[in-house]
């Protein structure tokens, strides 16, 4: 099945530092979604990218889809303690019978004061 | 904002017992899903459901598992004869369309299943 790998697995930053997580696939992706899961919480949808080279911003968060549509990144500028959580990329895979959202391995972000 | 609700929030069961996890998806959504997350690991797809039937299932979703939409609002996951390795957080999700669209998938708060 399709696998999406994320790096790094963990990241500790000081508050105010930037943070980036990368998502990589060996095959071309039709789309990519990003989710945030707070500790003890559930995945919350952040954004969907569809177009090659697409860049979208949400306040301090910048999402990018690679030109070849095989990788994506999420960059957070000037992290805050509220950014703590695990960030997952995910791909909707259409199959003959239906569809499924396949999650990447996730990057756990810890922000220290 | 509409949300997916799941009950119970925590379920403890004896090994070999049957459990039913319940979900109420967002009312105008058409696609429903179950996922599970073993502590500290990634979120794993179990099954998708559309038009009152399973549209896709993973290798995890074996004969031990079943899903049902009994009354047009609830969406349930039944696990027969639970095993210790079924202990995990189970998330229900729904989406208005198969790809999730611009709004993605909406997840419930989860049911933490502990098999003892």
Instruction: Give the biggest beta sheet of chain A.
Output: 6 strands, mixed
Binned strand content of chain A: over 45%
β-sheet strand percentage of chain B: over 45%
Structural class of chain A: mainly beta
Q: CA-to-CA gap between the ends of chain B?
A: 36 Å
Q: What is the mean pLDDT of chain A?
A: 93
* Mean pLDDT rating of chain B: 93
Largest interface: A-B, 26 and 27 residues
Number of strands of chain A: 11
Q: What is the gyration radius of chain A calculated from CA atoms?
A: 14 Å
Major sheet summary line of chain B: 7 strands, mixed
Task: Tell me the span between the first and last alpha carbons of chain A.
Answer: 40 Å
Percent in helix of chain B: under 10%
* SSE pattern of chain A, N- to C-terminal: EEEEEEEEEEE
- Judged by helices, strands and strand pairing, the structural class of chain B is mainly beta
Give the count of helical stretches of chain B: 0
Indicate the multimeric state. heterodimer
N-to-C order of helices and strands of chain B: EEEEEEEEEEE
SS field, number of helical segments of chain A? 0
Count the strands of chain B? 11
User: Judging from the principal axes of the Cα atoms, what is the shape of chain A?
Assistant: globular
Question: Can you walk through the features of this model?
Answer:
The complex is a heterodimer of chains A (113) and B (116). Helices cover 0% and strands 58% of the residues of chain A. By secondary structure, chain A is mainly β. The model of chain A has no long low-confidence stretch (mean pLDDT 93). By secondary structure, chain B is mainly β. In chain B, the strands form two sheets. In chain B, strands 2, 4, 5, 6, 9, 10 and 11 form a seven-stranded mixed β-sheet that branches. Chain B has a four-stranded antiparallel β-sheet with strand order 1-3-8-7, with no helix packed on it. The radius of gyration of chain B is 13 Å and the shape is globular. The termini of chain B are far apart. The A-B interface holds A 31, 33, 35, 37, 41-48, 88, 92, 94-95, 97-106 and B 31, 33, 42-45, 48, 50, 54-56, 58, 91, 93, 98-110.
């Amino acid at each position: 099945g399709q696998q999406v790998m994320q790096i790094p697995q963990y990241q500790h930053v000081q508050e105010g530092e930037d943070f980036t997580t990368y998502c990589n696939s060996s095959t071309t992706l039709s789309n990519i979604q990003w989710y945030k899961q707070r500790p003890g919480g559930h995945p919350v949808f952040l954004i969907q990218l569809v177009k090659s080279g697409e860049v979208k911003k949400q306040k301090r968060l910048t999402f990018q889809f690679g030109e070849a549509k095989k990788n994506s990144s999420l960059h957070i500028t000037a992290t805050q303690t509220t950014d703590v959580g695990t960030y997952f990329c995910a791909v909707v895979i259409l199959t003959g019978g239906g569809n499924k959202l396949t999650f990447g391995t996730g990057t756990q972000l810890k922000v220290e004061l | 904002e509409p949300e997916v609700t799941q009950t119970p929030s925590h379920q403890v069961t004896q090994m070999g017992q049957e459990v039913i996890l319940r979900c109420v998806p967002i009312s105008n959504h058409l696609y429903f899903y179950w996922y599970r997350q073993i502590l500290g690991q990634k979120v794993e797809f179990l099954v998708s459901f559309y038009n009152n039937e399973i549209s896709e299932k993973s290798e995890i979703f074996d004969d031990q598992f079943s899903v049902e939409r009994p009354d047009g609002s609830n969406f349930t996951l039944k696990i027969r004869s639970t095993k210790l390795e079924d202990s995990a957080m189970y998330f229900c999700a729904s989406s208005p369309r198969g790809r999730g669209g611009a709004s993605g998938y909406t997840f419930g708060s989860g049911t933490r299943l502990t098999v003892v």
